[in-house]
């Protein structure tokens, strides 16, 4: 199970498992984690956890939040990420999520992305490696991202992982999640929300179907199942 450890000036203050969907961080006593200093807003940030996945979100605080030294408004958390709120440090631990290197053949799409391998880590924890291998060997529909505009127009990337982020860090990033029920896209960071077929997806996960066109700050990507 994912957890966070809160410290200040090297002194451990809190350790909390992320066993609820949403925890809040701020100066107000009603928060799940109370950081009692004036540089922390009354309701400063929240960590949202859905199954194995966690996001940290700035709640329009005065002084903002940093993840690994970079200011963010909303960020998909990875194992060992460090969230900084004022002079407090919040370390995120989730051994079920590990970063893997993207295949070389998909490195020419025209904008950066990160791919995370969650399925194999969870299967290994549960002793289900053989079952996972058997399931992965079955033929399945292939999901593809096809760049429609920009320098990478016409290029494609096959979605092979459970979680795939697309976009430009610091500009706009979205997360595509593969579930047994299908695919969804979620806003991760950026001032505006991604558009699907010209309509803003908002702050919640939005289902994707074949033929949808995703607009990330002017770059159009078509989602195709074939």
Topology, pairings included?
Blueprint lengths: L2 E6 L2 E7 L4 E5 L6 E2 L10 E6 L2 E6 L6 E3 L2 E3 L1 E3 L5 E4 L2 E6 L4 E3 L12 E5 L1 H8 L2 H8 L6 E5 L8 E3 L4 E6 L3 E8 L2 E9 L4 E2 L2 E2 L5 E3 L4 E4 L2 E7 L1
Parallel strand pairs: 3-4
Antiparallel strand pairs: 1-2, 1-11, 3-5, 5-6, 6-9, 7-8, 7-10, 10-11, 12-13, 13-16, 14-15, 14-23, 16-17, 17-18, 18-21, 19-20, 19-22, 22-23
Structure characteristics:
mainly beta, six-stranded antiparallel β-sheet, 226 residues, Tumour Suppressor Smad4, 2 helices, 7% helix, 2 domains
Description:
This protein has helices at residues 119-126, 129-136, and strands at residues 3-8, 11-17, 22-26, 33-34, 45-50, 53-58, 65-67, 70-72, 74-76, 82-85, 88-93, 98-100, 113-117, 143-147, 156-158, 163-168, 172-179, 182-190, 195-196, 199-200, 206-208, 213-216, 219-225. The strands form four sheets. A six-stranded antiparallel sheet has the order 2-1-11-10-7-8, with no helix packed on it. The chain folds into two domains: 1-91, Tumour Suppressor Smad4 (Sandwich); 141-223, Tumour Suppressor Smad4 (Sandwich). Helix content is 7%, strand content 48%. It is mostly beta strands. It is elongated and about 50 Å long.
């Amino acid at each position: 199970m994912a957890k966070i450890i809160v410290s200040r000036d090297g002194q451990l203050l809190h350790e909390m498992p992320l066993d609820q969907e949403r925890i809040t961080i701020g100066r107000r006593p009603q928060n799940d984690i109370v950081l009692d200093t004036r540089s922390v807003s009354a309701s400063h940030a929240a960590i949202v956890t859905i199954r194995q996945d966690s996001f940290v979100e700035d709640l329009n605080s005065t002084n903002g939040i940093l993840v690994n030294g970079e200011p963010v408004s909303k960020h998909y958390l990875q194992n060992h990420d460090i969230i900084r709120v004022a002079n407090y440090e919040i370390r995120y631990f989730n051994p079920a999520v590990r970063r893997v290197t993207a295949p070389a053949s998909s490195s020419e799409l025209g904008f950066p992305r990160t791919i995370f391998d969650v399925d194999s880590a969870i299967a290994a924890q549960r002793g289900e490696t053989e079952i996972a291998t058997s399931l992965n060997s079955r033929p399945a529909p292939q999901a593809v991202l096809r760049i429609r505009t920009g320098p990478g127009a016409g290029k494609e990337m096959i979605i092979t992982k459970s979680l795939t982020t697309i976009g430009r860090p610091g500009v706009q990033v979205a997360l595509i999640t593969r579930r047994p029920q299908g695919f969804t896209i979620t806003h991760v960071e950026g001032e505006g929300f991604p558009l699907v077929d010209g309509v803003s997806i908002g702050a919640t996960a939005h289902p994707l179907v074949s033929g949808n066109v995703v607009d990330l700050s002017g770059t159009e990507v078509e989602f195709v199942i074939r």
